[in-house]
Write a structure and sequence with these properties.
The protein is mainly alpha-helical. The chain has 14 helices and three strands.
Length: 265
C-alpha cells in the first residue's frame, strides 16, 4: 500500500477513530487500484461514459464532500455490486444484464453511493479496530470466499469490513438510495423491482447471486422497506420521474455485444 494509506490505517489502529475524508480518499484510491489489477474491467469508452454519466447524475446532487466519483463495470457474469471508500463504485456486467430498465440500475447505484456518503465503510473499520480486527482485500473481491470461516480474522472482517455491511447499514443505504435517485429525477421504484429480480434469480440460479447475497443480505423485508419509503413521495412527483430511456437500452445492447474481457494476470 502507499504510505498515505498506511498512515490512514495507522490512525484507525491507534485511535479507533473514523478516518478523515482525505484519508478515506487515499485509502479508497489505493484499494481501487488493487481491485482493478485483479478484476476484469470493461474499458469500452461508450460503456464507461454511460455508467459514469448515470452515476454522476445521482452522486452530484447528494454528495456534500465533493468527492471525485468513479463508476466501473466489472466484466463478470455473477450478479454483484460494491462500493469502495472515497467514491469508487463497481457494478458487475451480470447485474446490468438482469435489469429491465434504467431505474433498476440507478437504484443499485443509489444504494452503493449511500454506503459512501454515510461513511459505512469508515465506521465499520473503526468498529473493527475496537474488536482488534484488520481489513481483508480478499473479502472485498470475493465475499463468498469468507463464508464458513468462523472464529478467524477473515470471518470477522467479512462481518465488519466494507465487504459486508450490517443489516442496519443496508437498511440505511436503501432508504437514502430511494431519496437519492428521487432527488436526481429517477423513479425510485426501480430499487424494489431490482430486489425482486434478485430474489427470483436466487430461487432459479442461486450460484449466480452468491456474491451479492454474501455482501448484500436481500430479504423480502427490504422490498417492503423501500416501498414504504417510496410511499412517502407525493404521487404527482413520483409520476414525473424517469423510469427508462433509449440511451439506457442502447447501453445494455452495446454491453451485451462486447466480448468477455480476460481476467488480469
Amino acid at each position: 500500500m502507499r504510505q498515505s494509506v498506511l498512515l490512514a490505517l495507522s490512525l484507525v489502529l491507534t485511535t479507533s477513530c473514523v478516518p478523515s475524508t482525505p484519508e478515506e480518499v487515499a485509502m479508497g484510491n489505493d484499494y481501487a487500484q488493487q481491485i482493478e489489477r485483479q478484476l476484469p474491467i470493461v474499458r469500452d469508452p461508450e460503456i464507461v461514459r454511460y455508467i459514469n454519466v448515470l452515476g454522476d447524475s445521482i452522486a452530484r446532487v447528494v454528495d456534500n464532500r465533493e468527492l471525485t466519483w468513479r463508476f466501473n463495470v466489472v466484466d463478470e457474469a455473477e450478479i454483484n455490486a460494491f462500493a469502495v471508500p472515497g467514491g469508487h463504485i463497481y457494478v458487475n456486467r451480470g447485474l446490468i444484464e438482469r435489469t429491465t430498465n434504467m431505474s433498476e440500475l440507478a437504484g443499485v447505484l443509489g444504494h452503493e453511493i449511500a454506503h459512501v456518503t454515510q461513511r459505512h465503510s469508515m465506521k465499520q473499520m473503526a468498529a473493527a479496530q475496537r474488536a482488534n480486527i484488520g481489513l481483508s482485500l480478499g473479502c472485498i473481491l470475493a465475499p463468498s470466499a469468507c463464508q464458513g470461516l468462523a472464529g478467524t480474522g477473515v470471518s470477522a472482517v467479512a462481518q465488519l469490513g466494507f465487504a459486508k455491511f450490517s443489516r442496519d447499514d443496508e437498511t440505511e443505504a436503501d432508504r437514502y438510495g430511494v431519496k437519492y435517485v428521487t432527488r436526481s429525477g429517477i423513479d425510485p421504484r426501480g430499487m424494489p423491482s431490482m430486489f425482486r429480480i434478485l430474489l427470483r434469480e436466487r430461487d432459479r440460479n442461486p450460484g449466480s447471486v452468491e456474491g451479492w447475497f454474501a455482501s448484500h443480505p436481500v430479504e423480502e423485508s427490504r422490498v417492503r422497506t423501500t416501498e414504504e419509503e417510496i410511499a412517502k413521495i407525493d404521487p404527482v412527483v413520483l409520476s414525473s420521474l424517469t423510469r427508462d430511456t433509449p440511451s439506457f437500452q442502447a447501453f445494455k445492447r452495446r454491453l451485451s455485444s462486447l466480448p468477455r474481457s480476460a481476467r488480469p494476470r
